Amino acid sequence: xxxxxxxxxxxxxxxxxxxxxxxxxxxxxxxxxxxxxxxxxxxxxxxxxxxxxxxxxxxxxxxxxxxxxxxxxxxxxxxxxxxxxxxxxxxxxxxxxxxxxxxxxxxxxxxxxxxxxxxxxxxxxxxxxxxxxxxxxxxxxxxxxxxxxxxxxxxxxxxxxxxxxxxxxxxxxxxxxxxxxxxxxxxxxxxxxxxxxxxxxxxxxxxxxxxxxxxxxxxxxxxxxxxxxxxxxxxxxxxxxxxxxxx
Amino acid sequence: xxxxxxxxxxxxxxxxxxxxxxxxxxxxxxxxxxxxxxxxxxxxxxxxxxxxxxxxxxxxxxxxxxxxxxxxxxxxxxxxxxxxxxxxxxxxxxxxxxxxxxxxxxxxxxxxxxxxxxxxxxxxxxxxxxxxxxxxxxxxxxxxxxxxxxxxxxxxxxxxxxxxxxxxxxxxxxxxxxxxxxxxxxxxxxxxxxxxxxxxxxxxxxxxxxxxxxxxxxxxxxxxxxxxxxxxxxxxxxxxxxxxxxxxxxxxxxxxxxxxxxxxxxxxxxxxxxxxxxxxxxxxxxxxxxx
Lengths: 247, 291
Hints:
The structure holds two protein chains of two kinds.
Chain A: E1 2-13, E2 16-27, E3 31-35, H1 42-49, E4 57-61, E5 70-73, H2 87-92, H3 96-99, H4 107-119, H5 135-149, E6 153-157, H6 165-180, E7 184-188, H7 192-198, E8 201-206, E9 208-214, H8 215-218, H9 221-232
Parallel strand pairs in A: 3-7, 3-8, 5-6, 6-7
Antiparallel strand pairs in A: 1-2, 1-4, 8-9
Helix pairs in contact in A: 4-5, 5-6
Chain B: H1 3-7, H2 9-13, H3 15-40, H4 44-53, H5 55-65, H6 70-94, H7 99-121, H8 124-132, H9 140-169, H10 171-176, H11 181-204, H12 206-209, H13 211-223, H14 227-252, H15 256-274
Helix pairs in contact in B: 3-9, 3-11, 3-13, 3-14, 4-7, 5-6, 5-7, 6-7, 6-11, 9-11, 13-14, 13-15, 14-15
Keywords (chain B): Membrane, Transmembrane, Transmembrane helix, Transport
Membrane topology (chain B): Multi-pass membrane protein
Organism (chain B): Pokkaliibacter plantistimulans
């Protein structure tokens, strides 16, 4: 069964496709890495899945879930880390579906937040201002918020960029435990070795699909060379893309 | 001069000073938390732009009423503010222009239009009233309007506090969990910012109204580390600036609006030096802790 189906989707910036005619499906409970060179459209694809950028064509089907059932970790730079919130405040945001606009934070939710912080190695950090955390600690906080969200589908945009190896190792364990619990996990990653070691499926992207499936088959040297060449191609005078009409 | 004469009798002896004090306190209670949220949203200058944007509406109210009518000018200002907020939002979502750029263009047009409209019908004295407020000439009707706006503001902020803070901190997250963030942002901008500018415009004038929002907010950011204490310090500084500013204006016979804002500016200056996040701390470092 599919958790998420991409049906011929294209996202364009100023008419140039950032991702072009992508079709395929993320199986329910799968653990997929999205890999590819810079400018390959990896983050754009995630933003399209999250409804943050409009589709130029195609559609996304969310199966038995809705878009808001997806737990999403954007790139770290997107958040103001000097905002005057405590670690606990930030993690408890993950309980939005339970708390809504004005329900009070219950003992139960506070305990879940404590457990989530413990799971990411930040026990006792509840009352610390987020401004005092290191980049790695802040990323752990965002993972704790995802834990509280308890989402069946988790989408991560470069979760390990500018993070130390110890934190990367710990958070990778969290991702693997999500996979074991049967959640569908999709992560944009730069470290090909990490992809090969831990992610059973890979979508190799260079604005188009270079390969999507079993990681060892997809991450071949030929595919990687092709991906690099295609991501660098940029034709100002490109023709209008005409869909092929099947006979 | 006794302490009583210095601090209390101006308000005990004169009704216009009492009304001015109540208006200022009400304004501070509503405007300061808004300023904090605008600042955290990195929209500090949007308040300034909006304060200019309400001018043509006030001018139309002025022309419609045939003179200085706080009610009509307030209503006109409100409509003009709403129009600019919505149009700026629409433009930033449908073109490449960012929200601050579309605000900037609208407020300049509004300012020119407002000054032109007022100069068509009024005298320079009228223009000064609109630009710098009439806090010492506030009647009971205007006082009720300002107090009503503050009450509504605090009520709305209390109800939508959580999504508003989430929308300020991480709009992408709120959108992802289906929290309808843009609607709270719009509600905040339309109802709260514009309404408070209308209240501020009646007391301090269009140009200085935003001072009561932003100066307390920046003072608070220098002192506080949590959002709760930031809101509290901002409100206290706004209230204190209002009270001290009015006293200053009374005793030294100076214009009251600028006195209030300059008192806030003085508090800001002191905070810049003395606050934990201020400049002097660099020269007198405290010993560091063990852990």
